């Protein structure tokens, strides 16, 4: 279990660096020297492995501190049209409307000048592009930063491959062929040949499903069917995963179990089969991770050592994160890792419990038959589901309520689907007619899987939205990992504690409940109002979103952006967990970028009052918002309307002066508010345009404020100079998205600001927190 301690230390160092301000590498060298000295001094003590874990911690931090944060070519992001030339370094990702090419650039041409610049770029090429791995291409388009969406950061995803730029709106020309690694190019050609064979041997959607299962390319499935598989919790069978690898190894083990080969050799042969299969399908990073994870489980079973699996999984995590530390944030890596850990921890106990239940309900012969038939789909599903369900809820904000029955019906046929699909594809090289017969057999099994998934996907509430903050999920995995370590090592103190708690079940339950109650009360106390007004400029992308907590704890939400998960998470992080009421909701304009996330909020929180400018909109999204607002009183307001809270906070509406019509400019007539507490005021200008600011001045508006939100995210010509002069702010707030395609904030706009005053930006600092006692300001 020493590997477990080392891996935990290493991982902690990597996570610390990636989640903080990244201390310089030379500081980590100093920490490493101190850690090595401590390990040497404790070399013979009982604490030596803690010392070694600290050494691993510093090594992890040192490794992560050398991770690139950008690439040389990223300096040309958002600078307009240009041309790059370089080599395609990965298999093209062909989709319905585009082809994605990962290109390692050699040169860049812009404004007639050619410069040598290195860096990887994701090129969004036309669907008809015939570029292949190893080709040299010349691509012209706009270079931009990857974006961040509701519950998915494309920027972070691409950063794991050292890609920090996307080339959009491209024209691509292949200038040279047949470069790159010859072996990898040959493997990709065999993979494409196998996919062509499958696609010409059976109809859709069965062909697309088999290509996904065998070759890891689910692009052949329609988006609707992919959604059905996700909604029913069956997505793990669509693409190559640890689940499929374990099925393949299990079939090989069953074929060899009656031979005189030792069990260890059976495991070795199974791992070799997994390796050959991995090479055949191209061996990309996701497939390799699945193969390694499942191989660990197979070898652990072959050695009859439960303790082997946690240690081996730790070694896998250590090795993969040493090669690329950002793999720890890969959703597929986390799902594969914890699914394998779940199988190792829970499969045997659940099987024993299930067999005992069947023995009590049926005769011995019937119970044995049912166990042999049902154990794999039920036990494997539940064992893998226990640790992966929280990840699904965290990353995808949804939970399937039909996952267990769906897997019960389709998992038993997956081994036959996989093996017959492999057999038919291999036989096709020798006898296409015989291969066609095997494909027809496989098609019937695939049809069954598709039919079951579609039927259950149509069941009401087959999938439900489930939003949860990361803190309880992090706690769950902390407990799970500690439990896995204790189960494997079984230290004497842990065994004594377990015996003590088991013998005093009532006492243990009361103590546990008391600790939970104390924790919940402490959480409430920590979020009690402190007599100050807190303003949070939320990080909701290129949209407006402001949360205000008044001195006595009333909540005001102004807009919220268009990403429900991001908004709900940030509200949950800042509002008391037992507070499900927002006293005042302000919607500044009928623009989906400002209100798109609010229906999800209204499903989770009640609202006391809603203020809008009354401008209508004919979009479906606005109609959805109106349905969500129906239970609440919606008040149309104009300049002069005020809301005063009992603690002295005053909200004033400064614009518009008349209720706008459908055809009026949304930005020119946006709702502008000022929030005051004693001597401090905040001007929330939202998306009001320069024309709207001029109209306010013409009507005699007086926008004086201590803190001012820069309107329209600081885009070009978004600030009326006289309006800024009248506001006279002491602090500027800017909500922006560093990956926006408009280039906001505009440098000329920022030049209009007083350079001596602080400018707090969500694109640089994340959520901006400003609070006041009515006389002074603080910020974080």
Percent of residues in helices comes to 40-55%
Question: Based on the structure, what is the oligomeric state of the protein chains?
Answer: single chain
| Helix-strand category | alpha/beta
The portion of residues forming beta strands comes to 15-25%
Number of separate helices: 26
**DSSP, total strands:** 23
Q: Which sequence of strands runs across the widest sheet? A: 14-13-12-11-10-9-22-23
Q: Based on Cα principal axes, name the global outline.
A: globular
Largest sheet: 8 strands, mixed
Task: Characterise this structure.
It contains 26 helices and 23 strands. It is α/β, with parallel strands linked by helices and 780 residues long. The model has no long low-confidence stretch (mean pLDDT 85). It starts with a helix and ends with a strand. A hairpin with a 4-residue loop joins strand 22 (768-772) and strand 23 (777-779). Helix 9 packs antiparallel against helix 10 (285-302) and helix 14 (403-427) packs antiparallel against helix 15.
